[in-house]
Design a protein that fits this description.
alpha/beta; 7-stranded mixed β-sheet; 23% strand
Length: 208
Amino acid sequence: MRVIAGKAKGRQLSPVRGPGTRPMTNRAKSALFSIIEANISGADFLDLFAGTGQVGIEALSRGARRAVFVEQGPAALRTIESNLTMTRLSQNANLVRADVFRFLEGTPQPFDYVFIAPPQYRGWWIRTLQIIDSRPEWLTEDGWVIVQINPTEYEPVDLAHLILFDQRSYGSVMLCFYGQPGELDEDDDEIGAEAVEPEEILEEQDEA
């Protein structure tokens, strides 16, 4: 597992030992950042159920203004801190030790991207998405919520403010993109029309 592009390109990241983190392939991570690359520079990125922190770290490496990592597992927290130190990206990172649901009950602050990748097969992605939908202040006007799940977990979710505007599958990883209907411009709508080629295809399995 390593940083794919940007300031920390090529830096190896440590995994979280044991169960409880959601796997993400480098192929899926590369494809995700190919989709959001044009807008990641200067963006505020919220990484929920952060695990190893590899997604938020990739965002920082590619120029995100800041990344907030929310995690409560002690082993995962130590791993994120170590990975941030190793990549020299700690300065623009905020590591929050908290239960994600309680964190989202706090005072909202707007993010350009909210990434949700909870432990698999517990339905937590739906609960998290619905909380953000009920409190859209967690997003900037044109902010996105990006959910990572196994394709077998997907089901339609009843939402008041957000809509699913794109969906991609990469083997065992499905990425679902949600936004506010009035703020999705033509470029966003066209994302679902044609596939985005990942910058680099790596076959090994990583941990989120």
